[in-house]
Amino acid sequence: MSIEVKNINKKFGNFVALNDVSLEFPAGELTALLGPSGCGKTTLLRIIAGLEQPDHGQVLLDGEDASARHVRERQVGFVFQHYALFKHMTVFENIAFGLRVRPAATRPSESVIKEKVTKLLELVQLDWLADRYPPQLSGGQRQRIALARALAVEPRVLLLDEPFGALDAKVRKELRRWLRRLHDELHVTSIFVTHDQEEALEVADQIVLMNKGHVEQIGAPKDVYNNPASPFVYGFLGNVNLFRGRVHEGVLQSSGIAFDAPDHAKTQDARGIGYVRPHDLEVDRYTSGAEGIVVQLRRAHAIGPLAQLELERDDNGELIEAVISNERFGLLKLKEGETLVVRPKRLQVFVDDSI
Ligand code: ATP
Predict the structure, then answer these.
(1) Which of 177, 238, 245, 253 gets the most CB atoms within 10 Å of its CB?
(2) Domain 3-236 indexed as CATH 3.40.640.10
(3) Whose CA is nearest to atom 4 of ligand 1?
(4) pLDDT of 274
C-alpha cells in the first residue's frame, strides 16, 4: 500500500511539531524517517497510524483519504522501542493475540492460528522459543517477537518507532540487517523511525530527513549522503569540516585559499562555507611551496582499515579531521607533531548570510 501525507500541520499548544509536511512513501518500500530528537518523527508516524489527528492536512492510504478511518481499519502493524509484549503470555500466545481478538466471524480457526504463528516464528528464526515468556528472552529476541506479532494480522503498513533503540550496538547492527532481509522477503510498505544515521543509511530504500518539524531532504541513501541539500543534512549525516569565507563568482576564498564553487558562479561577494567530509581530504607531508592548507598532525588513531587524523591549521588554529586508509598512513610513516598539507578532493559550498 502506498502512503501519502499532504500539508500536515500539528501543534502542541504553541509549539509547532510538524510544519506543512508533504511526503510520499512508495508501496513496498522501506522508508527511514531520520532526524534529531524532537524533530517530529514520532508525531508523523502516529498521525499516519491514526493515533494522533493533524490540525491540518491529509493522510492518503493507496490514494484514499484516511481521515475518517479508525486505527483498526488502517491495518497498521506497530513495533515500538520498548517491547510491548504481554509478560504473562507465552511467545506463541503473544504472536497469536491479534488473531484471537478478532470478531468471531473473521477469527481464524485454531489450526490456522497454529500454522500461522509457527510460520511467523520460523520467519523471525525463533521457532524454538514458542513456549517461553517475554522476561525469559533477550532484548533482541523480544523485538523479533514484537515484529512477528505485528506481522500476524497481515498489516498493509508496518510502522517501526526506534525498534532497536534500546539494544546494544552489536545486536542493533545484526537486527537491522535481519530486518532488511525480512523486508526483501515480505515487501510490506514500512516506515522506520530512527535518529541513527548509520542505521537509516544501511537499512532504507528511501530516507526522509527531518529537522524542527519540516522535511529537509528526501532521497535514496546514497543521494542524500553524497549530495546533501542543506548544511543541516551535511552535518547530520556524518562528520564534516567547515571552511568559512567569502564566495564571489564561483570561487570560495577561505584563509587565502581559493576553492572552486561552480554552483555559485553568479554569486557576488557573499558569506559562504565549504563543507568537506574527512575522507574527501587528501593528506601529504608538507614540502616547501606545496598547495593546500598547512596543518600539524595532533593525533592519529590508526585502528582497523582507516586512520583518523586530528589536524590543526597553522593559519587559524582550527581543527580539521581527515580519514585516510591505514595502508596509506603506514606508507607515509606520519608522526604526531609533523607538518602536513591537506587539499579537499570534494567540497560543497553553501552560501547564506544566516550561516
Ligand atoms: P525522539 O527521537 O526524541 O523520539 P521525535 O523526532 O520522534 O523525537 P516527536 O516525539 O515527534 O519527536 O516530538 C516532536 C516535538 O513535539 C517534541 O518537541 C515533543 O516535545 C513535542 N510533543 C510530542 N508529543 C507531545 C504532546 N503530546 N504534548 C506536547 N508536546 C508534544
Answers:
(1) 245
(2) no
(3) 37
(4) 93
What does the alpha-carbon distance between residue 107 and residue 113 come to, in Å, rounded to a whole number?
Answer: 9
- Where are the domain boundaries for CATH 3.40.50.300 in the chain? 3-236
Domain span(s) for CATH 2.40.50.100 in the chain:
241-354
Query: How does DSSP assign 284-349, residue by residue?
Result: EE--TT--SEEEEEEEEEEETTEEEEEEEETTT--EEEEEEEHHHHHHHT--TT-EEEEEESS-EE
Q: At the top level of CATH, which class does the domain 241-354 belong to?
A: mainly beta
pLDDT for res 89: 94
Q: What's the rounded Cα separation, in Å, for the pair 205 and 31?
A: 6
Q: pLDDT digits over 108-152, tens only?
A: 899 999 999 998 898 888 889 999 999 999 888 888 899 889 888
The per-residue pLDDT for 41 is 93
As a whole number, the mean pLDDT across the chain is: 90
What confidence tens digit (pLDDT) does each residue in 152-168 have? 888 888 999 988 877 77
Cβ of 144 closer than 6 Å to ligand 1, yes or no, is no
- In the reported structure, the alpha carbon of residue 17 is separated from the centroid of ligand 1 by a whole-number distance in angstroms of 7
Extract the residue ranges of the chain whose pLDDT is less than 50: none
Ligand 1 neighbourhood includes 46 CB (under 6 angstroms):
no
